[in-house]
Amino acid sequence: MQRLKCIISYDGTHFSGYQIQPNGRTVQEEIETVLEKIHKGKHIRIVASGRTDAGVHAKGQVIHFDSNIAMPEANWKKAINALLPKDVQVKKAEKVSDDFHSRYDVKEKEYRYFVLNTEDRDVFQRHFSWQHAGNIDVGAIQSACKLLEGKHDFSSFCSAKTDLKGDKIRTIYEASCYKKEDMLVFCFKGNGFLYNMVRILVGTLLEIGKGKRSARDIPGIIRAENRGEAGETAPPQGLFLWNVDY
Amino acid sequence: MQRLKCIISYDGTHFSGYQIQPNGRTVQEEIETVLEKIHKGKHIRIVASGRTDAGVHAKGQVIHFDSNIAMPEANWKKAINALLPKDVQVKKAEKVSDDFHSRYDVKEKEYRYFVLNTEDRDVFQRHFSWQHAGNIDVGAIQSACKLLEGKHDFSSFCSAKTDLKGDKIRTIYEASCYKKEDMLVFCFKGNGFLYNMVRILVGTLLEIGKGKRSARDIPGIIRAENRGEAGETAPPQGLFLWNVDY
From CA B88, how far away is CA B32, in angstroms rounded? Predict the structure, then answer.
């Protein structure tokens, strides 16, 4: 038995999210179906670093699984990619020790969120960004980002739909935003993120960028530990799980 | 009666091309359906600068149509976009003189073609580029591009499926190629292009970039006036109708 770790990428547009569910196409099911074929009908369960919602993309999701097939490490990526549909792919596959765990061993996760700041929608960006017309004050967003960094109880930035049992204290190592041509790029690195946390952070930061709130409101929103104090939840299609470090 | 000129953009992924056909969703039909609604059930025919094939995109296709609705110029774009599906949009709408013709008056067309030069496919680029692994000699492609410029009989670069009645002499004002990160960007400007011409040009230039042919072969391929002498037809998803000048 050998444990494999894979870095995978997917276009979330036509998926009902990462995790298997009764109805709807999922990333987990597509990959497990391929692994079942490779293992001659034996079901192989995969474990990911975490779920992503319907419409959310991944550049660097990480999964692991165990296999009893004696395949050279270099062949795994090609074997899986040959059978996967075109909107999901393995970018890297490597053998790891039996105690590696893609969820429990996460040290840092990075998410990016893309906001297209143009007057009109763009047919080519519609699945990969959130379009916003009007002036956005990037400097104000950057000031707010600094106030989000650090160890906080992020209850105000967690969807009420969470099924989390533990606390909502997380550490954001980096929250940043820059503009490249018409695109605002948000970057969040942390030791973990709550349900919808990045999308609520972006929704709140956008309100600051549009002058509806001030960057100075951030500490109070955090302290409130109340979802109602933060801004709206940004839509899924602008969000990318960018990287997971162990 | 007023003639309107519109610059339109579309993601060609889910279209069976621009032109209306018995089966399959087309850009022309989507726009005419919207105009019919705006004109209370009266059918409005639109005329484009030219067709694009299934899977081919447009950043700056141009159409015209005639309307008896007295709408201010500034409202047309919003009125049409409000009813269009999300993969096609009007970028600009303006009133023009009655003798403007989007096809007959074209002075210059620009097409771009994107080749992703990476070892692996990329789920996010799969509908918008042609992925090619291995080394590509951009300098050799640039040399070949220079030899394509000018007024030539481009029969060797025209699909046998063309229904063209006239001659195949066209003028290429600019043929160029540059690499930006992993993406090769081909740019072609000319007074007109034959059926599949840009895709056959790219297919041939790629063979030169990969060392299967020499840039010096271009004059001979042109002189042959024989489709069999040129390279393969590049796939549609890398092609964008970029701009039309009048």
Answer: 12
